[in-house]
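2024-03-11 09:14:02 DEBUG pipeline.ingest accepted 1 chain
2024-03-11 09:14:02 DEBUG pipeline.ingest length=191
2024-03-11 09:14:03 DEBUG pipeline.predict start
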Amino acid sequence: MSLEQDLFQRSGSQCELCGSKDDLQVYAVPDSPDGLENHILICGICKEQIEEPEKTDPKHWRCLNDSMWSSVPAVQVMAWRMLNRLKGEGWPQDLLDMMYMEEDQLAWAKAGQATGETSGGVEHKDSNGVTIEAGDTVVLIKDLPVRGSSLVAKRGTSVRRVSLVHDNPEQIEGKVEGQQIVILTKFVKKV
């Protein structure tokens, strides 16, 4: 059997990441040795978003909640890489915390990240110039009125598990009094 036939059989003729049955194609996982176990069958939408990070739709990748548990190492590696790319959204960090991978698979997954495949290149810094990562806790350093609401986020308020705005290094998102708001990084201090 050919590589493509093997992958169609292994996957049940569906995308191994999102489960779609449309526009399926063989995808060689970057930064991996050759062989069947290093290829996956994915749909055109997944492929486009993997190869062009600016087109990534976080809602599409909710499917990783299922595919991260695949018994196929190449699928686990791609799920891990996409979850890391999206961890600024908040929910992917929860999945990463639950995910288990063997050491050699994790090294393979991180090899792709090191080549810049999952890096957006935008760095978020707080008022003191300290780098803010997704999932960090920050404290407001001034009272901030929240647009479109009567809420005023008070100085000293702790905002846990912030997510990063991927295309703007001056903005982060977090919950204050149960409301998700965008906060300018110049008004926060990392804890």
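2024-03-11 09:14:41 DEBUG pipeline.report Residues 171 and 184 are 5 Å apart (CA to CA).
2024-03-11 09:14:41 DEBUG pipeline.predict end
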